[in-house]
Design goal:
By secondary structure, the chain is α/β, with parallel strands linked by helices. The protein is built from nine helices and five strands, in the order βααβααβαααβαβα. The protein has a five-stranded parallel β-sheet with strand order 3-2-1-4-5. It starts with 9 loop residues before the first strand and ends in a 9-residue tail after the last helix. The relative contact order is 0.17.
Length: 171
């Protein structure tokens, strides 16, 4: 399912959320960005899957405190549980990419879910665009793996351009 740009649903990866928190916090300069995110939340076009939500809460970096509080306050507005179709697709992504370096087997072997295949599974089934800061060129990173499943993955700068943001200095 392909959506028109004005209907695009953005599904955020853990690292993109942490980048937002680290470099684009709410305030005078980036307030319009967060206003836009709030509008997308109202339209159900800014989403986070439960596996990414869990990854953020396992993150121990100091910058994640504000992000975790923001996510707790907005959880009902953006969280997407893994439905059966997305689960089946996610398992396909895991199976087909198990030995490529895409799946962090050591992480999974200690019982921690790897969000990336679920992110791609959701996006493939529901027509979402993934927003990630992972390398666009590495074969075992979200953008290249997602492309195999006809899923578009963009970075934050592309997301900002698509949403019509420009940085302008006051005259």
């Amino acid at each position: 399912m392909k959506l028109a740009l004005n209907e695009t649903v953005y599904c955020f990866d853990t690292n993109a959320l942490i980048w937002l928190d680290t470099y684009y916090k709410q305030g005078k300069v980036f307030g319009p960005l967060w206003d836009d995110i709030d509008a997308l939340l109202d339209e159900e076009r800014f989403i986070i899957i439960e596996e990414v939500y869990d990854e953020v809460f396992r993150h121990e970096g100091p910058q994640a405190t504000w992000l975790k509080n923001w996510m707790k306050g907005n959880k009902k507005r953006f969280i997407r549980e893994t439905d059966e179709e997305a689960m089946v697709q996610s398992r396909t992504v895991i199976r087909e990419n198990k030995n490529t370096g895409f799946i962090k087997l050591a992480k999974m072997s200690v019982g921690l879910e790897e969000a990336d295949p679920y992110l791609i599974g959701h996006a493939a089934i529901h027509g979402y665009v993934i927003v990630t800061q992972e390398s666009q060129t590495a074969a075992n990173r979200i953008p290249k793996v997602a492309k195999k499943y006809d899923v578009r993955a963009i970075n934050l700068l592309t997301y900002l351009h698509e949403r019509g943001f420009e940085l302008k200095r006051k005259e």
